Amino acid sequence: MHSCIAASVLIMSGCGKDDDPKPEEQVQLENLVKTWTLTDAVLGTTLRTDFVNVTLTISGSFNSSSPLGPYTYNLKGTFPNPSPWKPNGQWTFGEDAVTSVIVRDPGTADELVMNYNLSNDAKTLTINFSVPEAATGWGGGIFAKTKQVSGNWSFTFTSN
Known about the structure:
The chain is 14% helix and 38% strand. It has one domain: Lipocalin. It contains 2 helices and 9 strands.
């Protein structure tokens, strides 16, 4: 009788249990993939009001062979001229998704290491990065990168 109970407990404990938890990159990607609405843009200590109706769409499918990415981003809305953002591009997680580091446009002249913070409920995303004074830029238009956008940026986005 005891052996039947023990066997039942062993069988039941295996039911529904996920022996292979999702990789951290997959969990983070699932939280990030959506359209985000910009609520605040700050350069240094100055709140910037020249970003209007801006959305950031993060997309991509997890690939266990390349868990760090690349994934894609796309920005829409009205931006200051010049802007610290390109309208779209690729990004990857840093060496460890838990460190909350992403690399925008990896392997290009525009590569930029960014820190992100995702709220516990995955409804607020904050992205911080620095644009160096010596940065060379994106050609013209509303998405030009120049010395005018150098400094420490903080962007806060929300989702439903």
